Amino acid sequence: MSVKYEVLTNRIIAALEQGVRPWTKEWKGNGALTRQLRSTGEAYRGVNALNLWVAAQERGFRSPYWLTYKAAQALGAQVIKGAKSESVFYTSTFTKTEDSGDDRVIPFLKASAVFNADEIEGLPAHFYPSNQPIVTVQHSTRHEASEAFLQASGADIRHGGDRAFYAGKADFIQLPDFEAFFTSDSYYSTAFHELAHWTGAASRLDRTKGKVFGDTAYAFEELVAELAAAYLCADLGISAEPREDHAAYISCWIKALKSDSRAIFKAAALAEKAVDFLHKRGNVEEIAEAA
């Protein structure tokens, strides 16, 4: 079992055991949880997005930017003394020659150290968030970019009743009426969760769903959908609201992560694949600009 896999997995488990879902924003403040960014402004993806979200929450960072030591120096900036780095993960390969003489390519996980801009001095101003007072915002109106994104997906989305679910055999999404939700963010984060399930249909990304509540495959698919919804919310500026009816999954996720240190990496990768699938149906940036 790789130490690199264990470190992040244990971090996620610790948060879940405290009842905290690291992909949601657990404090009041301006705006939603945003994608964590490289020095170039490119978003971290998959498990790296999740790991840096956890780090930002644990350590109270306000800036979404994370830079390597060299990237900071290249910008004429300096990491402050005593700053603690976080890891971002990526895969690499090496080639092993077998006894038969055949070459075998073997993948392995590598980690790189990055520092949050809050602990780097001398960066350009845009790396630091504005010092605005914390306020509580209640959203109660339609969010045009999110509405456009849902429509662009092509999914059959129906409204009514008091449950939210994806009906796999009939291939449609059922949501309560918009007005039934406490906030518009709750509505859209729920819609994105069910839309993520929709991407897993056999005719689309063909993910294993599980058969009954609580089995490993069922809980894993719920984790994939939760992460995918969180990534979509971050892309569209929506707060990923935790659903009370999904609280029961936390113990299942903890059990799954404890039994497989790679599970969170797999779930995050599948979540980003679902998000990429939806991005191709409706470009998020173009939709946001049009709105």
Keywords:
alpha+beta, three-stranded mixed β-sheet, 41% helix, three-stranded antiparallel β-sheet, globular
Task: Describe, in short, the structure shown.
With 291 residues, the protein is α+β, with helices and mostly antiparallel strands.
C-alpha-based Rg, rounded: 20 Å
Query: Judging from the principal axes of the Cα atoms, what is the shape?
Result: globular
* Class from secondary-structure proportions: alpha+beta
Oligomerization category of the chains in this entry: single chain
Give the averaged pLDDT, no decimals.
Answer: 85
- Element order: H for helix, E for strand: HHEHEEEEHEEEHHHHH
Helical content class:
40-55%
DSSP summary, beta strand count: 8
Strand % is 5-15%
Uncertain segments: 26-30, 132-138
Largest sheet: 3 strands, antiparallel
Structural write-up:
- With 291 residues, this protein is α+β, with helices and mostly antiparallel strands.
- Helices cover 41% and strands 14% of the residues.
- The chain contains 9 helices and 8 strands.
- The chain has helices spanning 3-17, 46-59, 69-74, 144-153, 184-199, 216-236, 249-259, 263-281, 284-290, and strands spanning 66-67, 78-79, 86-97, 103-116, 120-121, 157-159, 165-167, 172-175.
- Strand 7 and strand 8 form a beta hairpin.
- Helix 4 packs across helix 9.
- The longest helix is centred in the last third of the chain and has 21 residues, at 216-236.
- It is globular, with a radius of gyration of 20 Å.
- Mean pLDDT is 85; it is low at 26-30 and 132-138.
